[in-house]
Design brief:
By secondary structure, this protein is of the alpha+beta class. The protein folds into two domains: 167 residues, 3-Layer(aba) Sandwich (Rossmann fold), CATH 3.40.50.300; 117 residues, Beta Barrel (OB fold (Dihydrolipoamide Acetyltransferase, E2P)), CATH 2.40.50.140. The protein has nine helices and 22 strands. The strands form five sheets. It has a six-stranded mixed beta sheet with strand order 6-7-8-3-9-10, with helices on both faces. A hairpin with a 2-residue loop joins strand 1 and strand 2. The two termini are 37 Å apart.
Length: 364
């Protein structure tokens, strides 16, 4: 979502200042600070145990942080002395198990917790049922619904009291792959229509990149990188961050005169002292294969670097792309992805290159 000038002039919808959460001797959230602006979708992304769900629970008010402050629309809602209870925070919650009440109908689930007279509550419930295309399911019970339908009911229930902030903890993980994309897109569209700011927790990079305006990459209780999906994918903070988003080929090298020697020629390694070990990383889809020569001609050289002689070890077709595994003459093993079907025979010799602009140099 893009922000209007009016939205940019508003205070952050949510702001965390140096939030810390400890369980026993383990600090699971370590000095986390960030802002979520009105209408913005922000994603806390990271592996299991990195602290993202603990951060979410503190914001929701179901757990108390050890230190730090939580602000909502410019007002302090929680520090170590002052705490607004969960029901007073105007924050909606969606969880991976949907948490629907099995003994209540769809309409009763959506209306649970709504305040006001019966007519107003019924009108809001019916409005939301229409928006999630479940008008004829009002009197059904959760066990009678599919996973996607339950997810839409959970979304409608969370939006019913018109929260200014929505917290979503792995809300789509229980859906099958074919259903997940459509439900995510429907959910995002509805949240955008409501103008609700969103903080989404997930361990899936593809989900974060599909939904978020900003990604906060967490590791060991800290935010190690933040940025728009395009920027964080194309300019990873370190090797571990790059590996979290995709498969990588990694070649080890040593710096000499600000240059690192590899099978693909020399790479610039500014800022690294002579003798420093570095790792040159690049994604499988960025390897260029010389299809025509197939190793039968002289070694070619391209403007982006030296071509390396490689022998096909294995090739597999995965539906939308093929994966080809290579052994370089120096003993290094690499993988390349090629759109559609490309299955060269094992033992075939080819020439491959790596564009300089697609490579990362990390301290080893």
């Amino acid at each position: 979502m893009t922000q209007t000038t009016a939205q940019q002039n508003l205070p952050p919808r949510l702001e965390l200042k140096n939030l810390t959460q400890t369980y026993g001797d383990k600090k699971v959230v370590d000095g986390v600070s960030f802002k979520v602006m009105p209408g913005q979708v922000t994603c806390l992304l990271g592996p299991s145990g990195c602290g993202k769900s603990s951060t979410l629970r503190a914001i929701a008010g179901v757990e108390m942080q050890q230190s730090g402050e939580i602000w909502l629309d410019g007002e302090l809602i929680c520090d170590t002395l002052h705490r607004v209870p969960p029901e007073g925070r105007s924050i909606g919650l969606m969880f991976q198990d949907f948490a629907l009440f099995p003994h209540l109908s769809v309409a009763q689930n959506i209306g649970f917790g709504l305040k006001g007279d019966k007519i107003a509550k019924r009108a809001r419930v019916m409005e939301l049922l229409k928006r999630v295309s479940l008008t004829h399911y009002a009197d059904r019970y959760p066990h009678e619904l599919s996973g996607g339908e339950q997810q839409r009911v959970a979304l409608a229930r969370a939006l019913a009291p018109r929260p200014v902030m929505m917290l979503m903890d792995e809300p789509f993980s229980g859906l099958d792959d074919r259903l997940r994309d459509s439900v995510r897109d429907e959910t995002l569209a509805m949240l955008k229509e409501e103008g609700t700011a969103v903080l989404l927790v997930t361990h899936e990079p593809e989900e974060a990149m599909r939904m978020a305006d900003e990604i906060l990459l967490m590791r060991g209780g800290k935010i190690v990188q933040r940025g728009a999906p395009y920027n964080i994918y194309n300019a990873p903070h370190d090797l571990e961050a790059a590996l979290f988003f995709s498969d990588l080929n990694v070649i080890e090298a040593e710096v000499n005169g600000a240059l690192a020697e590899t099978p693909f020629g020399q790479f610039l390694a500014p800022g690294h002292a002579n003798g420093t070990k570095v790792k040159i990383a690049f994604r499988p889809q960025h390897i260029r294969i010389d299809f025509d020569r197939g190793g039968r001609g002289p070694e070619p050289t391209q403007s982006d670097g030296v071509a390396a002689r490689a022998t096909v070890r294995r090739a597999r077709f995965l539906g939308r792309e093929s994966i080809v595994e290579f052994d370089l003459d120096c003993g290094v093993q690499l993988s390349a992805t090629v759109p559609s079907v490309f299955l060269p025979e094992t033992g075939r010799v080819m020439w491959i290159t790596v564009p300089r602009a697609r490579c990362y140099v990390f301290a080893g």
